[in-house]
């Protein structure tokens, strides 16, 4: 049984069908990329997994638990962390307070403190800025903070929405180095990216989402070599 099983998932907004029969699996420690154009439904897929968007049909099973009808904080407690599109950090709160919010669903303050130390070891720049307001960080630092905040919730599955968006190549490289290290430690990662090249380079497997449907899947290398992917998402051919 996979850690995450998504089956025939449908979701939307009013008359808009954003997801239409999406099925996918993610195993423990796997790094899975979801690539697709603007509006393909990538963000909605992550929101439906983390319980923010309520699916219209289909099922999300995490570690054997059907997530239907569960509140977002309960889903966090089961072990799903989400670094959302646009980072959504709290600009007036300090970096430390932002990180502490990630641990709110946990009852153990000592553990939260230890995990904040671990996040700071992973992203030393956050450790240097713990007392600074989140809104004063650069874009890359805010992305690190969004990932760090999700990690303080002790996820076994981490959902990342466009972590590379708007960031300089060196910062993207640093963030992907950490993402790969997390997967190597056994944390499963679902990575939504418009930057298909960087996503497929790091992902063990990937899915292509088009107009709310999965149209292709395979290993990262297979997808990166696929003619349709190269033409549509890698700007080749
Ligand atoms: P992007 O990369 O632009 O974020 P995406 O692949 O993440 O795209 P979604 O954001 O999931 O795609 O959007 C899927 C569809 O749902 C699109 O047609 C979008 O316009 C629509 N949509 C997304 N959010 C909302 C909303 N809050 N209200 C109405 N329609 C929405």
| Cofactors, ions and other ligands in the entry | adenosine-5'-triphosphate
Specify the biggest β-sheet: 6 strands, mixed
- The computed structural class is alpha/beta
How much strand?
A: 25-35%
How are the strands of the largest sheet arranged? 6-7-8-3-9-10
| Termini gap | 39 Å
What does this structure look like?
This protein is of the alpha/beta class and 237 residues long. Helices cover 39% and strands 26% of the residues. It is built from ten helices and ten strands. The protein has helices spanning 42-49, 72-78, 95-102, 109-122, 124-128, 139-152, 169-184, 196-202, 220-225, 227-233; strands spanning 4-13, 16-26, 31-35, 57-62, 65-66, 80-83, 157-161, 188-193, 205-210, 213-219. The chain has a six-stranded mixed beta sheet, sandwiched between helices. Strands 2-1-4-5 form a four-stranded antiparallel beta sheet, with helices on one face. Strand 9 and strand 10 (213-219) form a beta hairpin. Helix 3 packs parallel to helix 6 and helix 4 (109-122) packs antiparallel against helix 6 (139-152). The chain is globular. The structure holds adenosine-5'-triphosphate. Residues 13, 16, 18, 36, 38-44, 85, 194 line the site of adenosine-5'-triphosphate (ATP).
């Amino acid at each position: 049984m996979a850690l995450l099983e998504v089956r025939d998932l449908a979701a939307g907004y009013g008359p808009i069908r954003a997801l239409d029969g999406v099925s996918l699996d993610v195993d423990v420690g796997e790094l899975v990329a979801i690539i697709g154009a603007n509006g393909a439904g990538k963000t909605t897929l992550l929101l439906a997994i983390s319980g923010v968007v309520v699916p219209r049909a289909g099922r999300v099973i995490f570690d054997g638990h059907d997530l239907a009808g569960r509140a977002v904080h309960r889903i966090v407690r089961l072990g799903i962390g989400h670094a959302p599109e646009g980072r959504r950090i709290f600009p007036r709160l300090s970096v430390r307070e932002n990180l502490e919010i990630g641990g709110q669903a946990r009852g153990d303050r000592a553990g939260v403190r230890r995990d904040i130390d671990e996040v700071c070891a992973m992203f030393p720049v956050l450790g240097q800025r713990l007392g600074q307001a989140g809104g004063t960080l650069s874009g890359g630092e805010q992305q690190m903070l969004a990932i760090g905040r999700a990690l303080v919730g002790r996820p076994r599955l981490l959902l990342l929405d466009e972590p590379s968006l708007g960031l300089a190549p060196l910062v993207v490289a640093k963030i992907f180095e950490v993402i790969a290290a997390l997967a190597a430690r056994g944390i499963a990662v679902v990575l939504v990216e418009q930057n298909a090249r960087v996503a497929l380079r790091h992902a063990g497997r990937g899915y292509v989402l088009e107009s709310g449907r999965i149209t292709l899947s395979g290993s990262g290398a297979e997808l990166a070599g696929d003619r349709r992917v190269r033409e549509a998402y890698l700007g080749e051919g």
